[in-house]
Description:
By secondary structure, this protein is of the alpha/beta class. It has helices at residues 11-23, 34-40, 58-68, 82-91, 103-117, 152-163, 171-179, 184-201; strands spanning 3-7, 27-31, 46-50, 73-77, 95-98, 126-129, 132-135, 140-143, 146-148, 169-170, 206-209, 213-216. A five-stranded parallel β-sheet has the order 2-1-3-4-5, with helices on both faces. Strands 6-7-8-9 form a four-stranded antiparallel β-sheet, covered by helices on one side. A three-stranded antiparallel β-sheet has the order 10-12-11.
Amino acid sequence: MVNVLVVDEHTAVAESTVHDLRRQGYDAQSVGTGTAALKLHLAADLVLLDLELPDMDGLEVCRTIRSVSDTPIISVTGRDTELDRVLALQAGSDDCVPRSCGSREITARIQAVMRRARPRSAGARTLTVDGLRIDGGSREVRLHGGTVDVTAKEFDLLYLLASCPATVVSRREIMTQIWESDRVASSRTLDTHVSSLRAKLGSDWIVTVRGVGYRIGRGRPGSGASDDLAGPPTGPPPHARSVDRPPEPIPTGPPPPHSSPTDVLPDPTAPVTDSLPATPHRAAPRPASRGYFANFPRSLPEPSPIIKTER
């Protein structure tokens, strides 16, 4: 399914175009500014670009898209003059149509541009890698029986890697064969497409060979179109007991004396008395302080009797 990005500042016109394209079997979405178009164009197979945008010049948007990718662009101009068509084609557009163009003509031009962008070769074959099936004729990708929606460049990248499963394809070779360029901008575009394919298929289907390039992987057994659908992990949980260590025996019999509740709680059947229980070990008497009265005797002697004598 071809993914078309419609760039038009007029919301009603954009929604009508998206509706017509979806009726014709296209996957379409719309944005109203050039800034949004520059963010989303890598995920599209074709850009239907209105040259009159509110935030930036449409020709500049066309040049920027063409500098980083070869996504097909059909420009829509409000003035059907030779100068407008020439400027649009020189900026990187693959075709240019007037705004008065009908929906059926736009659909026909999209089909013509897509035939030139990704021609079908007579020798296209179907590649199968485990549960991944890549049909070169219909340009369809199926993973474990389910269809995976990929863009034109994502399909070309995946087909190139799957066509040589035992070989590491260098980054320069990938950019030369698919993007027909080895510039730094194309290198960043390659990283973006690899990340997008991993998000759709799973991280194990494209293997990075550091410093060289990429190769096709094998995926996880029974994995779906995303790592989030791969199911719960197998094996013991992180804090599981090691199987090499025997389990500790469960203690049996009565609890030890020191842990008996009767040693802590009083006996409810015992009679209640006012006296406190005897203390087995009484503390030693506190020694008298040695202060000012330390040298005085503890008791006074008895007074001596008074003897009276007569004169």
